[in-house]
Each structure stands twice: as structure tokens, then as C-alpha cells.
Amino acid sequence: MIAAQLLAYYFTELKDDQVKKIDKYLYSMRFSDETLLDITNRFRMELVKGLGRDTNATASLKMLPTFVRSIPDGSEKGDFIALDLGGSYFRILRVKVSHEKKQTVQMESEIFDTPEDIIHGTGTQLFDHVAECLGTFMEKHNIKDKKLPVGFTFSFPCQQAKLDEGYLITWTKSFKASGVEGMDVVNLLNKAIKKRGDYEADIMAVVNDTVGTMMTCGFDDQRCEVGIIIGTGTNACYMEELRHIDLVEGDEGRMCVNTEWGAFGDDGRLEDIRTEFDREIDRGSLNPGKQLFEKMVSGLYMGELVRLILVKMAREGLLFEGQITPEMLTKGKFETKHVSAIEKSKEGLTKARDVLSKLGVEPSADDCVAVQHICSIVSHRSANLVAAVLAGILMRLKENKGVGRLRTTVGIDGSLYKMHPQYSRRLHKTVRRLVPDCDVRFLLSNSGSGKGAAMVTAVAYRLAEQSKQIVQILSEFRLTTEQLLEVKNRMRVEIQNGLSKRTHDSATVKMLPTFVQSTPNGTEHGDFLALDLGGTNFRVLLVKIRSGKKRSVEMHNKIYAIPLEVMQGTGEELFDHIVHCISDFLDYMGMKNARLPLGFTFSFPCKQTSLDAGTLVTWTKGFKATDCEGEDVVGLLREAIKRREEFELDVVAIVNDTVGTMMTCAYEEPTCEVGLIAGTGSNACYMEEMRNVEMVDGDEGQMCVNMEWGAFGDNGCLDDMRTEYDRAVDDLSLNPGKQRYEKMCSGMYLGEIVRNILIDMTKKGFLFRGQISETLKTRGIFETKFLSQIESDRLALLQVRSILQHLGLDSTCDDSIIVKEVCGIVSRRAAQLCGAGMAAVVDKIRENRGVDHLNITVGVDGTLYKLHPHFSGIMHQTVNELAPKCSVNFLLSEDGSGKGAALITAVGCRQRQEQNSK
């Protein structure tokens, strides 16, 4: 017993001694975490160089765009063929993806040899061989008569300009077929298939094996956005933001980039960590000076590295008592599979003895321990170097996403990773140490990259079909110039109907006289109170207007909320609430005893008989208070003030918010004769010649007409342009059949149109993995501000995703692209429709004046116009195109319609004084 323990102790001591000796000898192959992080940073710099248009040519990492823009989302289906060429054998698979209860994949595959004389022969021979194998496979499976979509995994660096072409940059991994470098491999394969003439194939995608691995794993885990191969060769790919890939047009979405990281260090960046053994391997390779990183880490070279170390140590008398055999000096005799066998914990030393014996060596126990440790150092170095560069990719993804902690999946394949007993554990451990703020799941690709090629093809097939259908759905929202001219002409007809006494009662565009007959002339002065009611908020303002040389307008205001139950309660409750707010404001300003003139901005259709009397025609914008429609709102306000018995006010004018906006802008710019609101609601007003306003007596001068154009189309004149989504929004609104034009172009409804389109697209399986969430079913979730944010040019898709996720919609990158497109097309149509209406107005004014060319200013207000990144630009462009004889200047009303109400009140007071003094 004691003897056995002594022996064990002696052996442990001996082993430790040998290990220390080897550690010292191979010190340059062992790296600290500091060195590894330095390598990570070097890799990241090369990665950025590879992505840049101006630096790509000199970068060692080629960062090749693959044109794979999406990972599987679970809705793919069909029958596909995959070819997998990249090593000593060639594989063909038939992949059937079906959806019965859940998505299932059936695969049948066959392996064909790739003889050495073919991989070192001509390109014609190689592709004839591939075409022959494919023909054999199709015949065996009785599918020669079918033209199935084919995905081609081609595991060599290719330059791609689209998914179904790939120009070989350079052969790697001992392939050397002549006449292929610089050629499109898809074209070469198609030629070989055509030459045979006994079957057809539709090659939809050529992908790298690394991309195939990512796609295979992406089918099982949709978080997978990195693919790695650590086998005969090594490489990685990952999903990069398109905006960073200078070599590809466009900046929406993501694209898989094939890093070709085997060439990392070809520019000398890794010289300080390469050893004499690495240099010797490179000198004896088929491609000296190339793929230097791959030669330090991949399976093709690992056994050879160990052999070179053994030879040198034996020559120095440190191993095998200095004995060197012819087998030891023969290249390729020590294989990577031997490294894996020797590193097994239990039988490793026995395996070492077997392998060394086959090399003609009589190893001692010391020698076996030493060789095992040499293998361990070489393979550990490989795992550490791969971890360092993978850490660079993970840091990149984390930065791209702007997250504090990254959660992602890495799809991985390759014989070295799979067969070596310690490799995967070492790799995972080092990655977690180098990037502690990344939660990484490593997912082994069990089906190889062939299934991935089929998945790329399936995704390409799905996206092509989906794209066609999305274009079809959205085509109804794309209005031609002819259609917009038709809208303009129909608006002109409706304007005429509203102005004419004979047709006024049946007209949808009511053209209501406002009794505002003059814009400010600059002599107005005094203190005025203004109320502004038109949305969920209600404003009370004190406006101090000073005339003379230093004209000025000073404003104080306070905003009050109007609860939903008040908006939709009784009229008495609504006006009592308004007066309560006025009372609070007068207390706040300390002005309860002053009898101030008041202007009331009331943003709903009113029939006015004078400046201070207006009968509500109909509620809009979600208001539903009872006993108000058909009543004089100034009378309702005066009664509520009387009921309160706290203060007195002189109500001088009731004005629409659109008129208020026009007056505010006219105070700054005398050519302003049109007002436009493009916000929660949509409306316009303009100065019409009195002779055309048949509803009011008198032909002299002008009067501002409140168009109430939101109701344009209520008679069916826009039905040919309304979509099923417009109808759905209208049917579920508070006022079905009313305000149809407004429902197509105002902020209150655009989000609802978008939501209805998204529901339809989700039902069709184009979005959110076909799952309609409770959030998506919720009316009103898409506020205008979200549309404005989503369409902002400054926002990357990542931020669009975070907006959608904030709304409870778990979206992929592809979903975000589609949502952005839907928002864009809906708001574009809104701006065009609004522009067509405005073109009708300015052309009418031009004709009234009898001039060939009109210069005019439009005062504009409203959140949609102010906050949406593209609305105003598209609207201006539409007006220019449809009214080419008018030069229209749009002036933004900075102070809202409250100031306008005060100005109208001031003008009213001025005119009252002028009449009294006559």
C-alpha cells in the first residue's frame, strides 16, 4: 500500500516537473487575459476597417456582405435542396419544412467523395463532379422532374452583390481547382447543370458554411445571430447593422457579414504572438502569408504544430532521449484527431503512447506526460484565440444594440469543437471571462451547414413571397399624381357647393362664415382673455397686446386637462368645468375683478350668425357632450359663467382654431390669408371674397371662411380612394360615416390605420411571428408621436424595435423594417391628401383675384405638421406640384390658436370702437 502511494506521489511529482518544463519551453503560446483583450481590440479595429468603403481594400478581415438579411422566423415552409461543398467530402440534402401542428424539418442526405485530383484539377472538372452528384441524388429521390429551390453552401471566401451569386476570392483549406478564382461559382454550377441537360435547379442562394451554421441554429433559437466554424478551417459570421456596411447600399435592417477571420493577422498585426512553429507551418503551406490566424487555431494545422514542437524538442534532447524517426519528420503524420485522443482525461496517456509508437518512438512515462501537455497548450491557445476574436464580435453586437447587457446565441460547428474533449469548455470559459456583460448561449449545429443553406433559401423564398404581398397591400396607399389632381378637383367642387346658397345645406364641406372680416393692422392693443378648447387639453391665456413702434404680444397661460367622462358627459358639466378652469386662472393671475374681453377658440364645426354667436353643428375628435349640438356655444359659456357668480367676462368672439392660427401668423406676416391645422384633427380656413359667400349678405370686402374640410368625402366622393383599413377605422370610430377626409389624414387616426394594417399583416404571417398580441388588439396604442419617432431618419432600427417593445410588441429587425414602411406610406398619403386640399384652396384664391401667379402665405399649426419628420415636406411638394401657378409660403404658428383668438378679439374691439366713433 505504502509502495503504491509512494509510486503515485513520485508520478505526480514527475508529472508536475514535466508540466513546468513544457510551460517554460512553450511560454510564448500561453496568454494572459490582458493579452487576449489586446487581441480582441486589434480584431475590432480590423473589423471596422473591413466594413469601411475606403479601408476595405487594405483590411485583412474582408467582412463580406452575404445578402442574408434575416434568420428563420418559424413561418418558412417548402421543399428545398442543399449542396454543401467545403471539405474532403461533398454533401447533398433534401430538406422539407412543413407546418402541420408545428414547424417540422425532414432531411435526407447523401455524402459524395471529393477526390484529390478533382480539388486540385480544373474548375470545370470540379463543377461537373458536383452536377453529376446532384443528378445522381435527384434520380435516387425521384425528383429530377421538379425544379426545386437550391441553396449552395460554398465554404470559401466569396464576393457577393446579391444572394444568388458569389465570386470566389481565393481558395482555402487545400482546394486549388484552377480557373475558379474571380469567377461566379453559381454561374459555373449552372453551366455544368445545363451541360448535362437531364434536370433543372433553381439556385436561390450561395452561402458560406459559417452562415449555414448560423441559419441552422437560428431555426432552433431565434436569438442566434453569430455563426462559428472551428474545424478543418475556422471562420465566423454575424448579423451586422446595414448602416455600418459601406459596401452595400441602404441602411435599413441587418445583414449577415462573413468575417473571413482566418485571414486576421495577414497584415502583420499578430506578428508579436506568432511563434517559430507558426512561421514554419506557414512556409510549408499551399498559401504562404495567408490565413495566418487560421493556421494558429484550426484543425488542419493543429496536429502539424504539435509535430513541429516534438521534432524541435527531440532535437534539443528534451524528449524521446533525443531520438528522431523518419515518421516524426513526415508532414501530416501527427493529426489533429491524435491531439483530441491524447487530451482525453482517462485514456489520454495510453493514447499518447499508441500514437508515438506509430511514429516509431519508444516513449517514456515522462514523454507521454510531456506530449499530452504540449497538445493541451496548443489546443488551449487555439480556444483562447478564438474566444478573443469572438469577444470582439460580441462587444460589437452589444454596442450596435445599445444595451447594458447582451443576451445572444452563437451557432457553432466544426470537428475540432465537436471532437476535442476539452475545447468547447475552454472556449466558453474564456469568452465568459473576456465579456462578463454578455450572456452567451453556445448552440451546437447538429445538422451541419447544409440545412442552413436550405434555411437561407427558405427564408429568401419566404421574404420574396412576403415582399410581393406587402407591396400589394400597400399599393392602395400609393397615390398617383392623377389621383391627387382628382382629389384637388373634387375638393374644388365641394368648396363651391358649400359657398353656394342653393347647395349649402347638402354640402359636406360646410364653408362656414366666421364673421372675421379683417386681419390685424398693427393698431390693436389691450389685455384680452383667450380660451382654447379643441382636444384633451384646454388652455386659458391672458394676452397683453401693445401697439406702436415696439409692437409686442405678451402671453401667460395655464393648461388644464379635460377628463374623458367630462368630454362625453353632459353639456352643462363640460361648460361648468371650463368656467371652473377660468376661475382658477383668474385667481392665479389675480385678475378676478377686471371685466376682460374674451375670445373663445372652439375647434369644432360651428354655424356663426355673428362674431360672438356660433351654433355647434357636430362634435368631432372624440367629444360627445350631450345637449350641445344645435346650441349657441357662446350662450352655453355665458350661462355657465352666470351660474358660477364669481366674475364677469365680455365674450367678443368665438373662433375656430384654424382661424386663430391664420390670425396669429397674419400678425407677423400680412400676406397670410390661409390657416391650416394638421394635428389631432385637420381643417383649413381662408379669406374668401364676400361676393362668393352667399350665406352672408353683402358683396364688399372679404370674410374668413372656416371650411370644415374634415367632412370632405362624407358624400362618398372619396370612396374609390378609401381602403379596407380606412373603412375599419371609420366603422369603429365615435362618428361612423363622418369626417372621412380627416380620418385619412389627421393624427388622431393615422395610428389606427397603421394598427389595422399591422393586424392584417400579422394574420398573414408577415409580422410578429404571426402572433396577434393583446397589445396589437388595443385601439389607440399607436399615437401620432410614435409614428413620428418611428419614421425619424436619425433613428436606427434598433430604436424602432425598442419603441415597438415599449408598446408591448416583441419585434424582430425584419418586423421593424415593415412597421417603418407601413408608417411611412400611411403618413405620406396623409400629407399628399392634405396637400391636394391646400392646392385647391390656393388655386381658388388665385382665380378669385384673376391673376396668373399668386404669392401667398399659409399659417400652419398642429402636432402632425410640427413633429412628424416628413409630413410637412411631402405636403409642400404636393402643393407645388398640384398648384404650379402659386408660390406658397408656409409659416409655422409658434403660439397656437389661443393668441389668434386674442387677436380676433382685439380686431373685434377695434372695429367696435371704430363703428361707435362714426
From TrEMBL:
Gene Ontology, cellular component aspect: cytosol; mitochondrial membrane; mitochondrion
Cellular localization per UniProt: Cytoplasm; Mitochondrion membrane
Keyword Nucleotide-binding: yes
UniProt-listed InterPro entries: ATPase_NBD, Hexokinase, Hexokinase_BS, Hexokinase_C, Hexokinase_N
Entry-linked Gene3D superfamilies: 3.30.420.40, 3.40.367.20
Membrane topology: Peripheral membrane protein
PROSITE patterns tied to this protein: HEXOKINASE_1, HEXOKINASE_2
Family per record: Belongs to the hexokinase family.
Identification of the protein by name: hexokinase
Annotated organism of origin: Oryzias latipes
